[in-house]
Specification:
TIM Barrel; 12 helices; alpha/beta; single chain; 8-stranded parallel barrel; 12 strands
Length: 321
């Protein structure tokens, strides 16, 4: 995790005109604050009326954050995307795009054609906003909007904030201002902007947190939030309480489970300690309409494609049944 964090810090020095390796942007964090007490056992709960999951009425697609396959996808993007579709997914969330390198060597139109050939969409992509957050230069944002519209995104998503830009409450207010401006750019282009959390956003600054500042200082019509539920729990936050406190703000979820014995590790959805039955029961309050499975690491000898298939089946057949 620390290795990836250093990668992301390097990205803050790069603009969209430089090649950025796809493996450099995703959803992990080097922050090691734990909150195992926020994780609960995976006990089944009754979903909606008559046993039907409340999530089934509001969640449009079950997707995969492609960072999950960062060790295999760059070597065979076409074969990997085909296997994602075969596992049952309808949607993929990209990461690591650069203007020169595209998506794993495919320029946006070619990547869109690959998705089409496999019956997939990509409703969101994670893009490096490090330079923009540092100096406000919008060139990279414009490049992401162009690529996102070609691929067919609904959301351009900010995946991470480098440490130098988030050291105090005033920094977070400045970030919120930049998010609003980027959100306006996306809106003018027919897209939406979203922000993806880790757990560092929940560090306290007096009587508030960075995340509270972002939620309160951003315009709801311009900036949405992608709730990484694993990082909510690692930060000691109860996801359903967050949904009730900020209804309709969390339009996307990252669904990844917490290993029961090692909370800093992930496991297949349904095998860990996070009570996803309870969380999916509150989907309507959240405002979510799409979810992305993600897994940062695999058990020894676990085939990544077997893993993503197992997680998909649990989400679709248990959490949304």
């Amino acid at each position: 995790m620390n290795k990836r964090r250093s990668f992301l810090q390097q990205l803050g020095m790069l603009s969209a005109g430089f090649v950025v390796a796809p493996s450099l942007i995703s959803c992990d964090s080097g922050n090691t604050t734990t909150a195992e007490t926020a994780a609960t056992s995976q006990e089944p709960t009754n979903g909606g009326a008559g046993g039907k999951s409340a999530a089934n009425d509001v969640i449009k697609t079950v997707g995969l954050q492609l960072y999950t396959l960062r060790e295999v996808l760059p070597n065979d993007v076409k074969g990997g995307i085909a296997k994602v579709a075969q596992a049952g997914y309808q949607d993929v969330e990209t990461y690591g795009y650069s203007k020169q390198g595209g998506y794993w060597g495919l320029q946006p139109q070619a990547f869109k054609e690959l998705l089409d050939d496999n019956g997939l969409i990509s409703s969101s992509g994670h893009y490096d906003f490090g330079q923009y957050m540092t100096d406000g230069n919008t060139d990279a944002v414009k490049a992401y909007i162009e690529a996102g519209n070609t691929v067919g995104h609904t959301y351009i998503t900010v995946p991470y904030l480098g440490e130098p830009v988030r050291s105090n409450a005033e920094d977070y207010k400045a970030i919120a201002d930049k998010l609003n401006k980027a959100g306006e750019m996306c809106k003018e282009a027919g897209l939406k902007l979203a922000y993806h959390n880790h757990n560092f956003e929940f560090d306290k600054f007096g009587d508030t947190t960075g995340y509270e500042i972002l939620l309160s200082e951003t315009d709801q019509s311009l900036v949405s939030f992608e709730a990484d539920l694993y990082w909510f729990v690692r930060a000691g936050k109860e996801p359903t309480a967050m949904f009730k406190q900020y209804p309709n703000r969390f339009v996307m979820w990252h669904v990844k489970d917490m290993d029961k014995n090692s909370p800093e590790l992930n496991t297949e959805v349904g095998n860990g300690s996070i009570n996803y039955n309870e969380i999916f029961d509150q989907a309507k309050v959240s405002g979510v309409d799409r979810v992305f499975v993600e897994q940062e690491n695999f058990a020894a000898n676990m085939d990544p494609y077997q893993s993503i298939g197992q997680s998909y089946r649990f989400v679709k057949n248990t959490l949304m049944a």
